[in-house]
Amino acid sequence: MAQAARKASTRKARASLREAEKEPAPFPIIGIGASAGGIGALQTFFPEVPVDSGFAYVVIQHLDAEHESVLASIIQRSTAIETQTAAEGLEIEPNHIYVTPPGVSVTIENQRFHVVRMTTTRARRTPIDDFFTSLAQDQAENAAGIILSGTGSDGTIGLRAIKERDGLTLAQESAEYDGMMRSAVQSGLVDMVLPAEEMAAKLVGYFSHANRTESERDRRKREVAEQLSRIAALLRTRTGHDFSGYKDNTILRRIQRRMQVLQIDDPTTFYERLREEPQQVDLLFQDLLIGVTSFFRDTQAFESLERFVIPKLFEDRKPDETIRVWVPGCATGEEAYSIAMLLKESAPRGAASPNLQIFATDIDERALEVARAGRYPATIATDVTPKRLKEFFSREDGTYRVSAELREVCLFSAHNLLRDPPFSKLDLIACRNLLIYMGPELQEKIVPIFHYALRNNGYLFLGSSENVTRHARLFSTIDKASRIFQKRGGVAMQRLPEFPLAAAARQAPPLARRGATAATLPEVAERVLVERYAPAYVVINADGEVMHSSGGTGKYLELAAGAPDHNVFSMARRGLRMDLRAALHKAVSTGHVAVQNKISIGTNGGRQTISLAVQPLPGFPQLLFELADIGAFDVVGGVDGL
Question: Which of 93, 250, 395, 525 has the greatest number of CB atoms lying within 10 Å of its CB?
Fold first, then answer.
């Protein structure tokens, strides 16, 4: 009996030991990428690092296997911290420095090194990206990535992964060779650009704000939540974008990360900093938009798209027809260009090929600028085959530039999925890894919008953690593992939700309600009355270009087929354009309000009688265009709302 108990106790102890080995206690691990000129920067950096910081440092270098590295001994001469070479299976410990050996790719898993000899050509090697990406996956918010002196662009893609997982990113100011630093900074992914000797103090300050007890972290999260509605209001005012329907944890995590970067403990102080320094609102906005993207991300999913969907898009297509694709949340354009490559490769040669048009949209103007330029770091060679690199890219100043032929297929434009009406008559929508950031209410509204925007039997391509399970009536499954779905034909659509979609969500998220005390009672009452009773409106110029719009315009206006056109006459639904044109002409010529009543328009599968008014705005060259329903919506004899 006693022996059995001892055996059971031993088994439990071994199991506990195995569990401890699987999940070592977290501590900050700092990845440092260095190439040409990096030795001097490292000799400047490490003397400033405290010997008892509790951090581990991993230096990733660019060296071929035939070159013996003496970097570990050089670093050791400048610091009392134990320095050694990384090796397969070696467990990473705090207060240690590790240097990667030459000619290998080093990654991290469960705080242990995994070392693989490089077999790719020198031009395709990305040891810094390899380590940074694995570091982000393994350590999440306990990761930091530093780019020191070096040529090329290795490290930029890895920094994106670190930042997406809420880690810290730094780059060296005035690097001897600034290629890697410039690539990282131009991507918008770097939190701080500092001299090498100032980085250690920033690391200690940043992680001292993060390494708190669980009860302290919970208390801080509650305090941040109480400020959430006020911070969301600043974002909405500054950027015009509403994050109230996004998942609370995502927003809270990114806010807390910005507080760590600024080394601010008190959420109220952080709010005041945002209010006083609008550029800090911009930086928070950029943090909220960070997402991992790459060419042909999730290779298996793109192979399924190429196999099951792309050929179908060309079936029975005439040369004068257009295959239309929409990529909402396109970020810096990699996935849009990936789909463009698949379409180009499958298109019939010569005049028999239909036209190709990809609408790639995002709310991040900075990312759209990168996408339009079509210039990417040389490290994309790890994701794009040599054949495609040769056919669709050219080398320019150490980067890869997308060919003009491919850029002409992709139209990148600003568009807010939650605020702006959708495109229509689409053959494919690729919306990958955007829905996962949104709350269930918004997801419930967006999927039917995709159904509406697609042609019958059109395809929907989602991210690996996204699904349409709750909308099986609207979509059938083509490939469950790759998240490819097809629109069911003959399904009667309900009315589309009004835009902006986030307006309804903004009225009731639990965390936002807790922060509602920031506004006075009269202000809250006035806002509720305005949202309930104010008519939908659009501010336009004398040519009909839309300058601003309220919520609730989706039933009257939508983006027309083809290239995005924000002229109100192109966006007006059937039955509205002639009366609108007449009212605008009258308002401009007389300088007084022009009203048109009892206009019948086709919208959302039915008919609605409305009135419209166009009036000049005193002191401004623009005009106010108001719309209001008259009577009930009629579903009988409805028409397609185009």
Answer: 250
* Interior/surface letters 7-25, b for 16+ CB within 10 angstroms, e for the rest: eeeeeeeeeeeeeeeeeee
Q: Which CATH superfamily is domain 299-487 in?
A: Vaccinia Virus protein VP39 (3.40.50.150)
Between CA 315 and CA 376 the distance in angstroms is 33
pLDDT at 511: 37
The SS3 call for residue 628 is strand
Distances from the Cα of 28 to the Cαs of 55, 139, 168, in angstroms?
5, 8, 10
* CATH code, 534-629: 3.30.450.20
Asked whether the domain spanning 299-487 has the same topology as the one spanning 24-209, the reply is yes
The CATH number that domain 24-209 falls under is 3.40.50.180
Burial label, 91 (beta-carbon count in 10 A; 0-12, 13-18, 19+): exposed
Q: Which of 215, 304, 562, 295 is nearest to 413 (CA)?
A: 562
Q: Where are the alpha helices (DSSP H) in 430-489?
A: 440-453
402: Cβ–Cβ under 8 A, 6 or more apart, which residues?
337, 374, 375, 376, 392, 393
User: What's the pTM value of the predicted model, to 2 decimals?
Assistant: 0.68
Three-state secondary structure string covering 325-343: EEEECCCCCHHHHHHHHHH
What's the whole-number mean pLDDT along residues 637-642? Answer: 35
Specify which of 25-34, 290-299, 597-606 reaches the highest per-range mean pLDDT. 25-34
Q: Of 167, 139, 161, 168, which Cα lies nearest the Cα of 27? A: 139
206's tokens: 């940043």
Percent of the chain with pLDDT over 70: 80
Neighbour order of strands in the sheet with 410-414 = 410-414, 355-362, 322-328, 426-431, 454-462, 484-487, 475-479
Residue 39 in tokens: 């030795």
Question: Are 271 and 230 within 8 A, CB to CB?
Answer: yes
Spatial contact of 400 and 375, defined as CB atoms under 8 Å apart: yes
Q: DSSP letter at 572?
A: B
- Give the end-to-end CA distance of the chain in Å, rounded to a whole number: 81
With the C-alpha atoms ordered 460, 463, 464, 470, is the resulting torsion angle positive or negative? negative
Domain boundaries defined on the chain: 24-209, 212-289, 299-487, 534-629
